[in-house]
Amino acid sequence: MPLYEHVLIARQDLSNAQAEGLVEHFSTVLADNGGKVVDSEYWGVRTLAYKINKNRKAHYAYLRSDSPSDAVHEMERLARLHDDVMRVMTVKVDAHEEGPSVQMQKREERGERRERRDRDN
Known about the structure:
4-stranded antiparallel β-sheet; alpha+beta; 4 strands; 2 helices; globular
């Protein structure tokens, strides 16, 4: 089955428990449609780059799944209909990375930054 990574952005006025409940809810939606959530992370409340629905901050959650495309479409459809979810982004990946995502790693644990390439070439 294809591998996907999903990022959910939920309203900031939710409690942490409610935001984590959304992750569980969408995990069960994927499981009910033949998919499997490999890993999930709750990133907490973060500042948005721009206002979304008059909100400056939001709860972020991250899911890694191994699901058929029908399950992903159903999860995205339900997320768009859910009042607490502001945005959903799904990306198809070739392989899941091991360990925590870059957002959950401490700055010291991350590797050195890559050099920027010259844009003139």
